[in-house]
Amino acid sequence: MVVSVDLIRALRTQTGAGIMECKQALEQTQGDMDKAAESLRDKGFAKAAKRSDRETNQGVVQAYIHTGGRVGAIIELGCETDFVARTPEFQSLAHDIAMQVAAMAPAYLDESDKEEDDDRPAAQVCLLKQPFIKGNSNSVADIVQEMAAKVGENVRVVRFNRLALGE
Questions:
Q1: pTM (2 decimals)?
Q2: How many domains does one find in the chain?
Q3: Do 152 and 95 share a structural domain?
């Protein structure tokens, strides 16, 4: 099947994948945009999993202060290169995760950090397990993984802290 340039361009805009990857995905799915995007997403997740052991020495520290100045959060979102750290998408993700921390008050980064005597559900107290506030269909970990797949680097939340008056 011959795929039009407009379809390739639209899929590339939607997913951030390379031109040839978009063309191949569209050819394999007979031009079905949704199936091609899902295929690219799956491939991206597989590639991201292979990179998960790489060091994340670059990134950003992002702060968020909620309206009224009574609650704030600061996070460190790490990646492999400063090139990725400076992209608007990466900066936006860091801001969104800082907002998540301020709004949802997680106590731990992940289940591995959770204290044994804490019987609260992981989705309530572990940042990476919480439903993402800007769309409950994915967890914070899923959103971070999507960014890693999109940029082709290891991306991870390194640490976070939340401050609130009276707590």
A1: 0.72
A2: 2
A3: yes
